[in-house]
Amino acid sequence: MSDATLDDRGRLTLPKEIRERYGDRYHVVDVRDGVKLIPVADDPLDALRDEFADVEKTTEELREEARGAALDEAGR
User: Which sequence spans correspond to the domains of the chain?
Assistant: First the structure.
């Protein structure tokens, strides 16, 4: 872990090893006890395709499962 400081214009410079590992674009998320930086892929759709490449169900099957889970959680 390393420290980063805002400059007089409010800019934050991340250490080189962080930028090399995660890239140059981030979502800034306000969490209860601070902020979180979430890396944004150069091509978010490609990142999603890679993440779910091993999923063997169709989108319709996934939707049906999600609907059922939501209805169960709502106390159907």
Answer: 1-40, 42-76
CA distance 23 to 42: 8
Give me the pLDDT at residue 70, please. Answer: 94
What would the two tokens of residue 43 be?
């091509």
Copy the structure tokens of residue 12: 């934050």
**pLDDT digit string, tens, across residues 18-31:** 989 988 999 999 99
Using DSSP, state whether 64 is helix, strand or coil. helix
| pLDDT band with cut points at 50, 70 and 90 for residue 43 | confident
Q: Quickly name the fold that domain 1-40 has.
A: Pemi-like Protein 1; Chain: D (2.10.260)
Whole-number Cα distances in Å, 38 to 15, 32, 63: 15, 16, 26
- Find all residues with CB under 8 Å of 35, minimum gap 6, and list them: 28, 29
